[in-house]
Design a protein that fits this description.
- By secondary structure, the protein is α+β, with helices and mostly antiparallel strands.
- The protein has three helices and 18 strands.
- The strands form four sheets. The chain has a six-stranded mixed sheet with strand order 2-11-9-4-7-6, with no helix packed on it.
- The chain starts with a helix and ends with a helix.
Length: about 300
C-alpha cells in the first residue's frame, strides 16, 4: 500500500503538470453528428499551455471517401504568416504551417483555421492530427511538450429536406459572391540569403482575406510605378526577382476567391537614376524637337 501511494504521488507530481501545461492542437467540436449530404464545420485550435509559442505545423488526416473539403478559412487565425497555408493535399490530408510573429500565449485556445466538410457517405469519420509541431518563442525555436487531439464525425443516413439540419450560415459562408471586401493590406519584403535562390534577391509577401480567402498572387517588375496590365504573372512567396539590379518597382496583387484584389507596390533600395528612365529621354527629345522647330521658325521670319 505504501509503495502504491509513493508511485501515485510520483506520477501526480511528474505527469500531471505536463498534462496541464502542455501545448495542444485540438478539434472543436471533437464529436459531431451530421446526415449524409449535409455540411459540418470543424475548427482547429492550439492551446499554448504555459509556453509562449510562435509557430505551429501539422497535418489533418480524414477519410476522403467519407468527407469532402469544401472550404478552408484562416482569416481569423492567430497565425499571420503562412509558409504553408492550410491546404487540401488530396487523399485525406490537410497540411499547414504558420507563424505568429511576436509570439502567442493565452489561457484561451487560439484558432488556427476552420474546415467546412460535406458528408458523402455513412459511417464514423475519424479526424487525426499527424506530424504536429509547436515551437516556443524562446529565441531558439524549442519544441513544446505537445498533445495532439482527435475528432469524430458520425455520418447518419440521408434525411428528407424538411428534416435537414443544413446550416444556412454555412451555405452563405460557401457563397463567395457575398464577399465585397478586399484582401487586407500587406507589405512585400525583399531579402537575400545564400541558401535561397543561390543568394539572389527575392521577395516575400503574405496577406489574408477574412471572407472568401486568398486565391492567388500576381506580380510584376516594372520601371513604371503603375506597371502594365499585360505583364502580370502568377507567383508564390518567396519569389526570385528578375531585376537583380533592384531598379524596378515591384508590384504585387493579392486576389481573393471572389475576384476582389489589393495591389501593393515596393520601391527597391537601388532606385533607377533619372537619366536611365525612358520617360527622361522622351522629354529630352521633345524639348530638342521643340527647340529645333522654334529655331527654324525664327530663321524663316
Amino acid at each position: 500500500m505504501k509503495n502504491f501511494f509513493l508511485t501515485f504521488l510520483f506520477l501526480a507530481t511528474v505527469l500531471i503538470p505536463n498534462a496541464v501545461f502542455a501545448s495542444e492542437i485540438i478539434f472543436a467540436p471533437s464529436m459531431a453528428t451530421v446526415a449524409k449530404g449535409e455540411l459540418v464545420k470543424v475548427n482547429v485550435y492550439v492551446s499554448s499551455g504555459e509556453d509562449k509559442i510562435n509557430a505551429v505545423e501539422g497535418k489533418i488526416i480524414f477519410p476522403s471517401n467519407m468527407l469532402q473539403v469544401l472550404k478552408i478559412s484562416y482569416g481569423n487565425s492567430i497565425l499571420s504568416f503562412w509558409p504553408q497555408v492550410p491546404e487540401d493535399k488530396g487523399s485525406g490530408v490537410i497540411a499547414f504551417s504558420g507563424v505568429a510573429p511576436g509570439g502567442y500565449i493565452s489561457a484561451n485556445r487560439g484558432l488556427l483555421f476552420s474546415v467546412i466538410f460535406r458528408a458523402d457517405s455513412e459511417g464514423n469519420a475519424d479526424l487525426q492530427i499527424k506530424d504536429g509541431l509547436v515551437l516556443k518563442d524562446d529565441g531558439q525555436g524549442s519544441a513544446t511538450n505537445l498533445k495532439l487531439g482527435s475528432g469524430s464525425i458520425d455520418i447518419i443516413k440521408k434525411v428528407s429536406p424538411d428534416k435537414s439540419n443544413v446550416s444556412t450560415s454555412l451555405i452563405k459562408e460557401l457563397d463567395v459572391t457575398t464577399d465585397r471586401e478586399l484582401p487586407e493590406s500587406f507589405t512585400p519584403l525583399m531579402g537575400s540569403n545564400p541558401d535561397i535562390f543561390n543568394g539572389k534577391y527575392f521577395l516575400v509577401f503574405n496577406t489574408v482575406d477574412k471572407q472568401s480567402g486568398i486565391d492567388h498572387y500576381e506580380i510584376q517588375e516594372s520601371l513604371r510605378k503603375g506597371g502594365d496590365e499585360s505583364k502580370w504573372i502568377r507567383a508564390e512567396s518567396p519569389h526570385q526577382l528578375s531585376d537583380q539590379t533592384l531598379r524596378s518597382f515591384i508590384i504585387v496583387k493579392a486576389v481573393d476567391k471572389a475576384g476582389n484584389f489589393r495591389i501593393e507596390t515596393l520601391s527597391l533600395g537601388n532606385p533607377q537614376q533619372f537619366y536611365q528612365s525612358i520617360m527622361f529621354w522622351v522629354i529630352i527629345i521633345l524639348i530638342l524637337i521643340g527647340f529645333l522647330f522654334l529655331k527654324k521658325k525664327f530663321k524663316n521670319n
